[in-house]
Amino acid sequence: MQQNLETKKAEILKLVREYSELAHLENRPGWDPQKVDTNSIPYGGRVFDCDEVEAAVSSTLDFWLTLGKEGKAFESELSKFLNISFSVLTNSGSSANLLAISALTSPQLPSDKRLLPGDEVISCAAGFPTTVAPIVQNQCIPVLLDNDPITGNADLSLLEEAYQPGKTKALILAHTLGNPFDISSALSFCQKHDLWLIEDNCDALGSAYTSSNNSTTDPKTQYTGSWGDISTQSFYPPHHMTLGEGGAVNIARSPRLRKLVESFRDWGRDCWCPSGCDDTCGKRFDWQRGDLPPGYDHKYIYSHFGYNLKPLDPQAAIGLAQLKKLPRFIEERKRNWNFLRSALDKLQNFFEFALPTHATHWKNDGFEWDNSGNRSDCSWFGFMLMVKKEAPFTKVEFANHLESKGIQNRMLFGGNLTKQPAFMDLLKHNPDAFRVVGGTRGADRLMNEAVFIGVYPGLSEKQLTIMAETIHTYCASF
Asked: Which are the catalytic amino acids?
């Protein structure tokens, strides 16, 4: 019987691969650039082949569905890639940010480290809203630094001005469009004041940072997402790899933080048994917590007000296949960004171009760097252009033109978040709901002047060339 089932499954999966080869040609890595549709050039999208489709169908045929062996394997492989202790899979990058902040509210943490209502968490004014939203959702106060418009990241020269002794407990900062924020400054600040550091790594999987500020004589280089106490990932289709939906919380070192993140992800329960297991701790009926009767089933003891934010096991199976392609995806994002930067270099009268953190200039052979000894190696999420104020067109006009030519583009997410309706409403009901440090001049520039186009691995050189030529032609018309 078992042998017959395995034979049938093998036959099905062989047909699945054949089907995928025919049905998903345009999503395949290395798809013939001469056959790519140039009438519509996405800013991001899925890149996969029959490996991912087979993995998803194979897992679905097993029909466990809820997070299981594939999830465990994916968490292990992702943590190995980042060279950290633990990864916890979740259903989205936004949920990952919610879990990262929520875990720090746990009563199981030391009282001086625990986030309590009214405590402050530093973030930045321009970016994606769900970097900041979990601060509000956990009844804490966001302290929003202005942005450096050239890197897109928070201006960390404002950190000391933002700090309030006894109130400031953590930083949560995104590596904007794959550009690492100034990790050396953030780490020094957190170590000085004993604060948590959360890296929103959703746009930056595969980016690396070199810090010269460490106890050894040699600079230290490691991936973003591995420097802070906690980091987060998104696996939404435009991101560096995809599970369809999905995300992860990465814990650099602490088993306690892993347990807390898993608790908040899994209904707030104490029990760490995976689905289908009943007595991992070996004393399921020997616990006593709160005012529950002694021996109450540990699977139904809840120390937190949690959620259910798990993904499905077939998603994790897709992720395992995607992880094998990730190094190639990273290099192709870098190559595509450099192609566009070189192709558009002569348009500096119209645009300001992004620079990696710690870079001072771009040249055809690479970047010039400041004298800090720190460096950023970006796994770019997008190619950002800021329309100069003296340009003969506005950002909106430029963005509309690109769309009219089939070139997808995006704003820098929520722009200046303090101008968003949700934040305006927050202030209406509570004038002290958040603080802004350093003004919002940089955040406003990103909101009013910045647009980004794609560099994802599904783009061909032909598409990149069309993008560059379209922009040149538009500028030449003025």
From this structure: 239
